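Sample intake sheet
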Amino acid sequence: MPMRRPRFTKEEACRRGDEIYDREIRGKIEADNKGKYVAIDIENGTWEMDTDEIVAGDKLLARFPDAQIWMTRVGYGYIRHFGAGRGRKTA
């Protein structure tokens, strides 16, 4: 299987992914799917959603093996959170 390579800069992929999500997807899914992952092909606008990010990406790749995927999480501004978070208190 040939290795897939990005065809867009990180900035362009981000811009396209956010634009497609905001314009075509957010209004359809955001109310009832908080926390699920959305994999978006930034070239043709198709997308898949799942509770598992790997499964969402695999579903999209099954349909479009050469997809240029942008991943987002419904209701969050990030995919994962690292660090202590808000629960940490300082003296």
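Comment: The longest helix spans residues 10-29. The radius of gyration is 15 Å.
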